[in-house]
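Design a sequence for this backbone.
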């Protein structure tokens, strides 16, 4: 073995120019693959961190009737199926020791209306109990104009990205109630028309009707304008309002509609038989009896108070966002959750955040696959060059190899010699590429490179460029190098193995 590597190293030094060309290609390929894996892994980690901690948690519960798992952005605009069993869901989730927090929400596409516009626009509406939502996702967005939501008011929070889109649709720039036009927050199109821009502190939205609901148009007061610190281009499409207003807009049953308390007098009336109904038209009227009116008023007042105290959990939702405790594997959590929910007949199923977020959650995988293909093509070029170089080397050394065969060298020895050459080049130059790639990944975060550009934030996985590398990322590059080494040496080895002592004599 030592002799094989000695001869292989001698041949590399004898063909320095060709060896450097092969080595440079292997170095560049390994470096790009390592650095690229660091970027895509960092992007994947950043996207996961921002989506999980800022918007939807680790797991999302959706209706069993929901056809697509993608509930973040459905390009076809189809409505998300309603969920009416939250009381069962809540009890089930509380029984799971791996669940940290959870919050139910309503989310759907709604129409954007304007009096003088015949063609409606569209935006996304998120209905939440704002206090509970903030507990689930604390300090994940900033109110840059106006104030936060107040429960019980017809208000809405508009994200900056949605405001830009709304302006493009209805040519109206939204500002908070009592607020003023803030020039630095205007979009480019709005800024170009600042002298004639139309502003408004209200917006009319109407839910998209389907087989289970009939929508209602509601005029919302704009309470505030908010912005996410990272990935605002994606999260900034969801206008936030109170869950009861969301239900009213979508035409779903609200808490009050689901929990109507019938006064005692009306219950008595409904329980009367036909012959008893005739007595109502007698000389003495029930309403005229002493004390009856005040009793009825007391009952109605008590009923209203009870309705106000009823939790919004009794109404309709579309989704439940869940955060898991640290270290809980998704596969385990999904399996246990679905089994428990199915046993309780909750009518929902659990999906992971990346499936629920559709293409956004798969972006890192797509980019990493594209990078893998690109570097593989680069390595294919390297394979061709290595094959050509080693084949020419084998032919140039026909006499030498023939003499080696004549004095007893076996074909396996000749093959090992060529495999040794490609192995040394791959290990030295490819290994150097991996090392430099790792160093680059470690150094880049020290520069604290940040951006406010939406598309760059997508590449970064957040507002800061922070590549990451894990063992599997490095192993992928090592596997590619081994593959290149073996494949590139196959043909030159077959040529060298075919050289006989007679070829050495005839060549001389």
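Sequence:
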């Amino acid at each position: 073995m030592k002799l094989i590597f000695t001869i292989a190293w001698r041949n590399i030094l004898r063909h320095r120019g060709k060896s450097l060309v092969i080595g440079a290609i292997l170095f560049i390929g390994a470096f790009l693959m390592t650095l690229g894996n660091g970027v895509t892994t960092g992007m994947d980690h950043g996207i996961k961190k921002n989506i999980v901690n800022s918007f939807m948690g680790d797991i999302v519960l959706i209706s069993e009737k929901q056809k697509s798992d993608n509930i973040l952005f459905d390009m076809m605009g189809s409505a998300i199926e309603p969920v009416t069993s939250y009381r069962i869901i809540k009890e089930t989730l509380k029984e799971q020791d791996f669940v940290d927090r959870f919050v139910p929400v309503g989310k759907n596409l709604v129409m954007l209306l304007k009096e003088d516009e015949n063609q409606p626009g569209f935006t996304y509406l998120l209905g939440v109990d704002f206090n509970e939502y903030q507990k689930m996702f604390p300090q994940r967005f900033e109110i840059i104009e106006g104030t936060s939501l107040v429960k019980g008011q017809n208000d809405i929070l508009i994200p900056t990205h949605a405001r830009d889109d709304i302006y493009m649709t209805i040519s109206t720039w939204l500002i908070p109630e009592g607020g003023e036009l803030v020039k630095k927050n205007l979009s480019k199109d709005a800024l170009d028309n600042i002298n004639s821009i139309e502003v408004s502190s209200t917006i009319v939205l109407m839910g998209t009707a389907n087989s289970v609901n009939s929508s209602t148009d509601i005029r919302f007061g704009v309470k505030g304008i908010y912005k996410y610190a990272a990935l605002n281009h994606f999260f900034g499409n969801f206008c936030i309002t109170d869950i009861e207003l969301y239900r009213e807009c979508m035409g779903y049953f609200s808490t009050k509609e689901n929990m109507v308390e019938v006064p005692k007098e009306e219950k008595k009336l409904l329980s009367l038989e036909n012959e008893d109904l005739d007595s109502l038209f007698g000389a003495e009227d029930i309403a005229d009896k002493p004390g009856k009116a005040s009793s009825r008023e007391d009952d109605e007042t008590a009923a209203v108070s009870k309705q106000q105290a009823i939790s919004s959990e009794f109404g309709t939702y579309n989704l439940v966002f869940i955060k898991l405790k640290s270290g809980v594997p998704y596969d385990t959590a999904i399996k246990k959750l679905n089994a428990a929910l199915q046993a309780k007949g909750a009518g929902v199923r659990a999906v992971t955040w990346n499936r629920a977020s559709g293409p956004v959650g798969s972006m890192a995988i797509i980019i990493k696959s594209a990078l893998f293909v690109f570097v593989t093509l680069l390595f294919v070029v390297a394979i061709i060059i290595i094959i050509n170089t080693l084949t020419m080397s084998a032919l140039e050394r026909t006499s030498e190899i023939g003499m080696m065969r004549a004095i007893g060298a076996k074909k396996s020895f000749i093959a090992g010699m060529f495999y040794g050459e490609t192995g040394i080049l791959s290990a030295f130059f490819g290994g150097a590429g991996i090392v430099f790639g790792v160093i680059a990944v470690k150094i880049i975060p020290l520069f604290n490179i940040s951006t406010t550009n939406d598309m760059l934030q997508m590449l970064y996985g957040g507002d800061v460029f922070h590549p990451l590398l894990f063992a599997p990322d490095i192993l992928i590059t090592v596997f590619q190098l081994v593959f290149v080494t073996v494949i590139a040496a196959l043909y030159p080895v077959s040529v060298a193995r075919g050289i006989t002592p007679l070829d050495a004599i005839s060549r001389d």
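Confidence is low (pLDDT under 50) at residues 283-294, 300-310.
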